[in-house]
Each structure stands twice: as structure tokens, then as C-alpha cells.
Specification:
mainly beta, 9-stranded mixed sheet
């Protein structure tokens, strides 16, 4: 039965990829209240991977599903992540983030199994805007900054900063 969820471009990419090379989808979650980051992979084994700034991290095998953001002019880039069977230590980190101030930052990266020295895709950096938890999973909704709502120009032109503007 054909997979109707994959786009034609993804089908072509998978069909033309070398055999035996896997794509490791990975998430890095960070918060100012945490001592470090939470690095997870969709794979079934731990991986030590190096990111684009040469930071090595051990990515833990925790099952998650995600939907990448839709690219369009009218929608906000938003990703939905569902983490299944959340371990207690991960749940404790998420509880700490909810009770503290600050934003959980989510970064998506993908590595090829034949090259752990740099991500093949990413990072896609987003801020978690909503979170919910049930007994068996945690759901996170994250989005990028909405550039339509940013001030432009984003500088305040005051006489103290720009004395040449005053006659």
C-alpha cells in the first residue's frame, strides 16, 4: 500500500539515497532553568553527534513524532512534537520548565548515519508556545518568531542615540 503522507519530493529523495544510510531525526530542548540540554533521537540507540558549532552531545533514544511546519505566506511556521513514553527524568525537566519563567527552545536537526560530525539538515530553532502532558505522552507546539509582528525599523530614533537628527 503506498504511503500517501509522503510528498513526491520526499519519495524521490528516499529512492535516490544510498542504501544502508539512515536519517536520524533529533531534537534538542533547552531552558534557562536546566543545567544542560535534553537531546533526543528517534532512533532506537544512543548516538554521540556533533552539531554545527562543534558541540558533541549524547542523543537519547526516546520515541517522538513530529510534523514539520507548513511553508506558506499565510501561516505561522509551527511544529507539533509528541514524545511517547516519557522517562521520569525527562518529565521532571519539563515540570521544572513549566514552573519557572522563560521559554523552552526546541531545535530540530537531522544527521545521516554515515556522518556524525555535522547535521545534514538544521538547525531549525523554534520556541515552545504550548505544552500538554498525559499519562503516556507529552505534546509540544513550537513556532518561529512571527516576522510580520516585528517592529521595523526596530531602533528607536532618539536624540540621545542619534544627535545628528536634532537641528
Amino acid at each position: 500500500m503506498p504511503d500517501t503522507l509522503m510528498t513526491q519530493a520526499v519519495r524521490e529523495a528516499y529512492a535516490s539515497a544510498p542504501s544502508g544510510i539512515m536519517l536520524w531525526h533529533c531534537l534538542t530542548l533547552s531552558h534557562s532553568a536546566w543545567a544542560g540540554t535534553l537531546d533526543i533521537t528517534q532512533d532506537t540507540a544512543e548516538h554521540v553527534l556533533t552539531d554545527e558549532v562543534q558541540r558533541s552531545a549524547t542523543y537519547l533514544p526516546i520515541a517522538f513524532a513530529f510534523t514539520l511546519p507548513e511553508i506558506s505566506e499565510s501561516s505561522v511556521s509551527e511544529i507539533l512534537v509528541e514524545i511517547d513514553a516519557v522517562p521520569r527524568d525527562v518529565a521532571a525537566l519539563l515540570d521544572l520548565a513549566v514552573s519557572a519563567t522563560g521559554v523552552i527552545t526546541l531545535q530540530y536537526r537531522a544527521w545521516l548515519s554515515n556522518d556524525a560530525s555535522a547535521p545534514a539538515y538544521g538547525p531549525l530553532s523554534l520556541s515552545v508556545t504550548a505544552a500538554s502532558a498525559s499519562l503516556d505522552k507529552v505534546s509540544l507546539r513550537a513556532s518561529a518568531a512571527n516576522v510580520a509582528n516585528l517592529a521595523f525599523p526596530n531602533l528607536d530614533y532618539t536624540p540621545s542615540k542619534f544627535p545628528g537628527l536634532v537641528a
